[in-house]
Sequence to fold (205 residues):
Amino acid sequence: MSQPRLTHARLEGANVIVRPIRREDAPLAFPLIHAQTEIIKWLAWSGPADEAELAEAYAQWNLGKDDAGANYRFAIETPGCPFVGAISVRFEGHPGLGDVGYWVAARHWGRGIGTEANRLVAHLCFVHLGARAMTATVYLGNHGSARLLEKVGYVREVDAHGVPLVGRPTDLDQDSWTYGLTRYDFQRASAGWTPREETVQFKGA
Ligand SMILES: CC(C)(COP(=O)(O)OP(=O)(O)OC[C@H]1O[C@@H](n2cnc3c(N)ncnc32)[C@H](O)[C@@H]1OP(=O)(O)O)[C@@H](O)C(=O)NCCC(=O)NCCS
Fold:
């Protein structure tokens, strides 16, 4: 199944904005992620070697082939803070099944930012990108991330809920929990919640 390709997406919640990441985010992002072991130990990425490497990566927020599913990378903003973390969703190789990854700078933890950023991205995927389901892989022991996902409506052991496992990473060298989110579970967990504002543009539109 091919998916519509985004050219822009900005979604705003009560305290969080997600918008396309850009090269210019690197100077703010680099000190928040470089050598931050309490963040990196939970990611399938060892972090950027230097700011230039991060800037190169952030220069492309939208990757992948249209017919095979695209990947999107977003900056997380809060009022007064133009960059507090990042969240990505990958569809490449498994269109219709969005796999999320995210981090929030340690100084901003515990304020609901990760939860709201995930709600905004799940909304984007289900409402605008036609996602059938979402998944997330959480290294064993990452209780904060597990709690966050459960607040959004994700359920551990996705296969028990009939969510397709296509695209699930199988080569992780750490034990992990796999979480899945169906449209139904998302709607139930976020009853009454919607983004305050959303601007979503597609290729060819
Ligand atoms: C996981 C992470 C994104 C959470 O971001 P955050 O903005 O602090 O999340 P929230 O404030 O929305 O909190 C989510 C919930 O987790 C809870 N939580 C946070 N740390 C916790 C911990 N160590 N154990 C149990 N619960 C925890 C919070 O209390 C909150 O639940 P509550 O509302 O019931 O109190 C952030 O800690 C982070 O970037 N960690 C390192 C990278 C990472 O783990 N990425 C995810 C990989 S799967």
